[in-house]
């Protein structure tokens, strides 16, 4: 079990460019979560999918950020027209089933995004 | 106030010492997870608790949903315990499955 896989591990983009971050959840897990970590804000929830369907995107900035889960083996987080304040570590997590008794979330290593 | 208040923000221990971290919640939470974030930034799951107490080696965690707090106790601290520890709670209402994190406790263990 390779755990949650995230690619790339590091990404540097120029202001205004697009960034796409990838997440491969643990095989068999039905729930996928995206979080963001910054020094100032700490760890913040962004969005979550269950069985590939978007359930809660209340943490996503309304503009420029979007997330998809086209199949059960990967999810993407896309940031259009990146800004310096988007610089953060983006973390993906998966859990077996949010309806399960113990829906522990397992985190990937994160993608460190730097917008210059 | 903050939904998850974690204390202390930083903690220094000598090897072999015991200490504890605490998270207080502003509302009733369904469950809590404790993580250690290592020097590479990886969040390592330590505990998941829906209630009660769990132990794993030198670590012990308690979650009291009614009293709205959780604790993580470290016994016989070792150098490799250094890192940032986070509690994260899952709300009990509706489909609130997302985790709300505390601000973390930076633990430094010295010889």
Any chance you could write out the topology, listing elements then pairs?
The complex is a heterodimer of chains A (116) and B (111).
Chain A: E1 5-7, E2 10-13, E3 19-24, E4 31-38, E5 42-50, E6 53-56, E7 65-71, E8 74-79, E9 88-95, E10 106-107, E11 111-115
Parallel strand pairs in A: 2-11
Antiparallel strand pairs in A: 1-3, 3-8, 4-5, 4-9, 5-6, 7-8, 9-10, 9-11
Chain B: E1 4-7, E2 10-14, E3 19-25, E4 29-37, E5 43-49, E6 52-56, E7 59-64, E8 69-74, E9 83-91, E10 99-101, E11 105-110
Parallel strand pairs in B: 2-11
Antiparallel strand pairs in B: 1-3, 3-8, 4-5, 4-9, 6-7, 7-8, 9-10, 9-11
Give a structural overview.
The complex is a heterodimer of chains A (116) and B (111). Chain A is an all-beta fold. Chain A has strands spanning 5-7, 10-13, 19-24, 31-38, 42-50, 53-56, 65-71, 74-79, 88-95, 106-107, 111-115. The model of chain A has no long low-confidence stretch (mean pLDDT 92). Chain B has one domain: Immunoglobulins (Immunoglobulin-like), CATH 2.60.40. Chain B has no helices and eleven strands. Chain B is globular. The mean pLDDT of chain B is 93. The interface between A and B is medium-sized, with 26 and 22 residues.
